[in-house]
């Protein structure tokens, strides 16, 4: 228990994760409003969207306009995702984008083919080019994602040894190219992790590379994301990707094998932290407002819970008597 | 970690928790079908409903017909809730009811008044009558619930000392009346618990009464129920109340302070256990079927996640390629 960090950082993924999966394209003004609302919550990093093929992801076609439209705060980083050099170059030339350079490794050929049209090994080779690209641009490499680090819906089990191959590749690459080891982000992309496996895999990286900084990108695909988050806290992990209102899944089409569900919900996890005395730097009331804004925008009930239940009222509320239950 | 139990028992609360909160009264045949489906999952105990004032809870008015209509399995206990002697007597005289006698303590006057029209102290006194009632009926007292053991939406904070007063009352009552100490059920009725507080309060009971059996009745009101569940597992707790599909909350009216949200979701928690090698005796595929049946019955998307995402497919699925994500 003593490993639980005193402070936790959340990287907000809602605008990207939530919108990339939607067929509906929301008005630009609403997307700008959501990003701006998130910018006022104390979150230090917000992933606004992806510079990807607009044919594959139509909702990201006007990503440059979205970035141009926001009112950036100086203390907030507005980041973006890209999957190739062209995407990176677009991001570099777009107003208000805070280039948070990252590497991306896959554990299964199936998902790598699906997302990048190349094998795991090819994607590794591409990372050498990405490193060169980042170094030429003078951008420090901040993080390295290991996608489907816990399991893959397309290919099945991802053994720990396969995940560790990706970790080792990142370490070797940093030595080879002489850049500081980026934060290793283990992504439970499609919700295969469980609390014990979180502990086992985080522990394995720690044991092999004690100097490595670690973060987790968690999804609540199967209802145990909050438990996985707590298990990671117990291992001392202090950085998480998450999505406001639990964005990233669609309640109208999320039946078995249709697609993955949303990230762990930022405000619910911030709530857990704050209740346990872990500081997050986030104004929870403002974050709940942003979640409710997202819900109005999406026009349907989103999966976040705190936004619906409200925060516990600690002061006596005898006169209010609004809430009860038979058991 | 070594305290994690090898086996966990789930007491299914969905039919009671899910239906008592609904304004809609579902056809009797559908409710019977749901209970019967749950009876085929391997769950050992299912709370079918409440013998309470039909004016206060119209959905439970025909509870005797519901019990009469089910097809009971011999290895399943079909239990009921009551709030007073009249309810207990109705339960006793109803077909198929497995009388699992319980005590009920409150930690706040506000909720006790709301649910029972009496103070915490009065409710304690009533428990003496309940004990007599159970003893006269020859029914062993199996459990003792401490309602809002972690906090109360009506009255606010519930200090640990107040919760422990209830525990002590139960212990004293068992000594006074000469019955074995029932399993003490700490109920997070309205979702105030967090993982550290689970550990603190379970630990406090354990320290004061090492011989006491403990169980938890958890709600996922604020999105951290799965983490609370995992924290309890780490403390060796091996019995939980839960609801299929996460029943107990209404997504159409669950805005702040309207009412509490559902229990932790049975199939999601069974999934967590099974993934971690903890046996539950539950056939997860059948339980998911029951959850989907509940969803069809309720006619809206319920909060359970596994039922929508499906179980991880461990075997290679290259030909299927149904599921992916950009990250």
Automatic annotation (TrEMBL), chains A, B:
Keywords, comma-separated and alphabetical: Lyase, Metal-binding
GO biological process assignments: ketone body biosynthetic process; L-leucine catabolic process
Lyase keyword on record: yes
Annotated Pyruvate carboxyltransferase domain residues: 8-288
Origin: domain of life: Bacteria
GO terms of molecular function: hydroxymethylglutaryl-CoA lyase activity; metal ion binding
One Pfam family of this chain: HMGL-like
Family statement drawn from the similarity comment of this UniProt entry: Belongs to the HMG-CoA lyase family.
The protein's name: Hydroxymethylglutaryl-CoA lyase
Source organism per UniProt: Noviherbaspirillum sedimenti
């Amino acid at each position: 228990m003593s490993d639980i960090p005193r402070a936790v950082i959340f990287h907000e993924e809602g605008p990207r994760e939530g919108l990339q999966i939607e067929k509906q394209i929301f008005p630009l003004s609403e997307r700008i409003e959501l990003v701006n609302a998130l910018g006022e919550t104390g979150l230090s990093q917000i992933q606004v969207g992806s510079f990807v093929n607009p044919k594959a992801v139509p909702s990201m076609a006007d990503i440059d306009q979205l970035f141009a439209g926001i009112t950036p705060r100086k203390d907030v980083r507005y980041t973006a995702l890209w999957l190739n050099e062209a995407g990176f170059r677009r991001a570099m030339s777009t107003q208000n984008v805070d280039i948070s350079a990252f590497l991306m490794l896959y554990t299964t050929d199936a998902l790598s083919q699906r997302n990048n049209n190349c094998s795991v090994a090819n994607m590794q080779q591409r990372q050498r080019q990405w490193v060169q690209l980042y170094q030429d641009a003078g951008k420090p490499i901040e993080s390295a994602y290991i996608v489907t680090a816990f399991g893959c819906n397309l290919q099945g089990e991802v053994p720990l040894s396969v995940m560790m191959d990706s970790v080792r590749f990142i370490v070797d690459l940093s030595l080879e190219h002489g850049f500081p080891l980026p934060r290793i982000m283990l992504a439970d992309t499609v919700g295969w992790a469980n609390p014990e496996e979180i502990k086992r895999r985080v522990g394995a990286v720690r044991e092999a590379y004690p100097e490595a900084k670690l973060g987790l990108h968690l999804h609540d695909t199967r209802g145990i994301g909050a438990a996985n988050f707590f298990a990671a806290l117990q291992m001392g992990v202090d950085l998480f990707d998450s999505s406001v209102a639990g964005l990233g899944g669609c309640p109208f089409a999320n039946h078995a094998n249709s697609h993955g569900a949303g990230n762990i919900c930022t405000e619910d996890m911030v709530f857990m932290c704050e209740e346990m005395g872990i500081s997050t730097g986030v104004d929870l009331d403002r974050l709940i407002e942003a979640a409710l804004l997202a819900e109005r925008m999406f026009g349907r009930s989103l999966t976040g819970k705190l936004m619906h239940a409200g925060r516990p009222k600690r002061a006596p509320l005898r006169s209010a008597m609004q809430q009860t239950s038979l058991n």
